[in-house]
Specification:
5 helices; single chain; alpha/beta; globular; Rossmann fold
Length: 143
C-alpha cells in the first residue's frame, strides 16, 4: 500500500513546519506550501490524497485557493483549517467543495483520521471514474 500524500498550505511557517513534522512522524509524505499560489502550483506537479489548507492567508486566501485547486482537480480532498472562521464561512467552504473545516489547534489523531478518510474518498472517486470510462469505451465499441 502506498503512503498517504498530503499538501499543507499555510502562511504560518512555524505552525506548518511543526504540523508537517508531526505528520511525517506518523508515516505520511508531506509537502508544504506557504502561499495559496504555491499550493496550486504544487498540486499541478504532484498527486495528493489530501490538502490541509489555511482559511486566512494574505494574498490568495483559503477560499480562493480552494476554488483554484478544485477547478484543476475536482476530486481533490481539501480540508480547511481555521482559527477564526465563522459558521457561515465554514458552510460556504463545504458548499464550494471542502470536505471538512477544522479549528486550530486540532487534535493530530483526528486530523490523521480525516486524512485517511480523504484518501479513501479520493480512491473511490478515481475508481468510479475509471469504471465509467471503461463502460463508455465498451459501449462505443458495441461490446
Amino acid at each position: 500500500m502506498s503512503t498517504d500524500r498530503v499538501l499543507l498550505v499555510d502562511d504560518e511557517v512555524e505552525f506548518v513546519e511543526t504540523l508537517a513534522e508531526r505528520l511525517r512522524a506518523r508515516g505520511l509524505e508531506v509537502e508544504v506550501a506557504l502561499t495559496g499560489m504555491d499550493g496550486v502550483a504544487k498540486a499541478q506537479t504532484a498527486r495528493f490524497d489530501a490538502v490541509v489548507l489555511d482559511f486566512a492567508m494574505p494574498g490568495m486566501d483559503g477560499i480562493a485557493t480552494l476554488k483554484a485547486l478544485l477547478a484543476a482537480h475536482p476530486d481533490l480532498q481539501i480540508m480547511l483549517l481555521t482559527g477564526q472562521a465563522t459558521i457561515k464561512a465554514a458552510i460556504d467552504a463545504t458548499r464550494l467543495g471542502a470536505v471538512d473545516v477544522l479549528e486550530k489547534p486540532m487534535d493530530i489523531s483526528t486530523l490523521m483520521e480525516k486524512i485517511r478518510a480523504a484518501r479513501a474518498r479520493r480512491v473511490a472517486l478515481t475508481d468510479e471514474r475509471a469504471r465509467r470510462q471503461v463502460e463508455e469505451v465498451l459501449k462505443s465499441k458495441g461490446w
